[in-house]
């Protein structure tokens, strides 16, 4: 089986030659090919090269367009700082005053935009790899995008103090993300991930009342485009596992602090669970024996509806032998 066949068979509940490996590599992938992360984020050719090298060397069963959460915001006019070899960030929110949202239009994916680099990466993956590896595109979830544009604290206050404005902002974000997702679908993506990190910070009440509705609308639209879906919420989603929109998720990432047994109990059979050994204590700092044990334990818990991965991104300075150990363990399972 090649990687695309392996992953798609697993998602369909079929037998596979081994467990698919969906470890998330971003800063690690840039380091692997010796380029600064600022270049990896802004040059789709370097992103593609880093992902392909890592996929082939470490047995990763997908290639992705993941790098940072600033693509949409940058194209909307947010001032984004690119440290030489670290993750891009915004020094200040784009929407400082609520009136700034009035008349704001979603940004397209034309040449010169950061989203264009994503689209071109997908096209290049397809040219280089054909159907050997599944190509995973990426959009921000509406809660995450709203927090990027407004600022985390300001957005959380808006949710409580001015829910009408918060919904207007979320509606704008939904329109932006659907436009971005369609461009990736047309470019040839097989899966689109939705990253909604701030949803775990907002908490169970706001997740159930609001965040899940917007996640559902994005995931439904991606499914309607004919693609598979992946939901990634950093942090502890344990308190609202029962509210995850599994009907529209092909894969749900589970971070390391979540009880995997509970996640599989609630989500298993409805979606494919991905996770959740500790990216730092296991992948970055662990011994070969500890990595082997963690991969095996998670696989045993996950059973049929499961793919292997650390709970979140594999850290930049993870020893390469640690990723090779994951590959070795999976070959033995």
Annotation field: number of helices? 15
Silhouette: globular
Give the DSSP E fraction (strand runs of 2 or more residues). Answer: 5-15%
Number of domains: 1
CATH-assigned fold name: TIM Barrel
**Helical residues, percent:** 40-55%
Radius of gyration: 19 Å
Instruction: Name the average pLDDT.
Output: 97
Oligomer: single chain
CATH class category = Alpha Beta
Termini separation: 16 Å
CATH architecture: Alpha-Beta Barrel
Residue runs with pLDDT of under 50 for 5 or more positions: none
Largest sheet: 7 strands, parallel
Q: What features would you describe in this structure?
A:
The chain is of the alpha/beta class and 333 residues long. It has a single domain (18-332), classed as Alpha-Beta Barrel (TIM Barrel). The protein is built from 15 helices and nine strands. It has helices at 3-11, 27-32, 37-42, 44-58, 71-75, 114-129, 142-150, 152-161, 163-187, 198-202, 204-224, 260-267, 279-284, 288-302, 320-332, and strands at residues 63-64, 80-81, 89-90, 135-140, 191-195, 228-232, 251-253, 272-277, 306-310. The strands form two sheets. The protein has a seven-stranded parallel β-sheet. Strands 2-3 form a two-stranded antiparallel ribbon. β7, α12 and β8 form a beta-alpha-beta unit. It starts with a helix and ends with a helix.
